[in-house]
Write a structure and sequence with these properties.
The protein has 169 residues and is α/β, with parallel strands linked by helices. 31% of the residues lie in helices and 20% in strands. Strands 2-1-4-3-5 form a five-stranded mixed beta sheet. The protein is globular, with a radius of gyration of 20 Å. 11% of the residues are buried.
């Protein structure tokens, strides 16, 4: 098995990331900031290069013009430490803008962490897509997925009949 080449920041000629604290939520207008990670494209095995940007959202579920296009990653938190790899999330031919809590939240700042965690519902709501990693299978994983499939089928069936009834009137 070939090893993945490791590169240092000096090898890549990239300045180190300097953290910029997020603005506190504007309670009057309901605006808040989030960090987004832009995963730059590259071939498999190449060093992963990301850019961190700050975006502004509204703390409502109303649609807004000019909201950033991003995906969110939801996953099972481990036992601590930064151990998750994001290599599989990179596209080879285009950028991928994502909100990933361990990267986009300063977990060492209790104030920012608390504020961002309280806004996660809105953050996920605004995402174009939410990618979910449920972690390792457990004893009853198959039963849970079967139940989820049943719920999905029931919702699809209900939607089908609702649409058919709507066409009658």
């Amino acid at each position: 098995m070939a090893s993945v080449p490791r590169a240092s920041l000096a090898d890549l000629d990239i300045p180190p990331y300097l953290y910029k604290p997020l603005a506190e939520e504007d309670a009057v207008e309901g605006k808040f900031e989030i960090n987004l990670v832009n995963i730059l494209p590259g071939p498999k095995g190449a060093p992963l290069i990301c850019e961190i940007t700050t975006a502004q959202l509204l703390n409502t579920f109303d649609l807004i013009v000019g909201k950033p296009d991003y995906e969110a990653l939801s996953y099972v938190w481990g036992t601590g430490g930064l151990s998750h790899e994001i290599l599989r999330l990179r596209f080879e031919d285009r950028n991928r803008c994502m909100w990933i809590d361990q990267i986009c939240i300063n977990l060492a700042d209790p104030l920012e962490r608390g504020q961002q965690v309280s806004l996660m519902g809105v953050i996920y709501w605004y995402a174009q897509r939410v990618i979910i990693d449920l972690g390792e299978a457990a004893e009853q994983s198959d039963e849970a997925f079967d139940y989820a499939a049943t719920l999905h089928d029931a919702a699809s069936l209900e939607s089908y009949y609702y649409t058919k009834e709507s066409q009658l009137f």
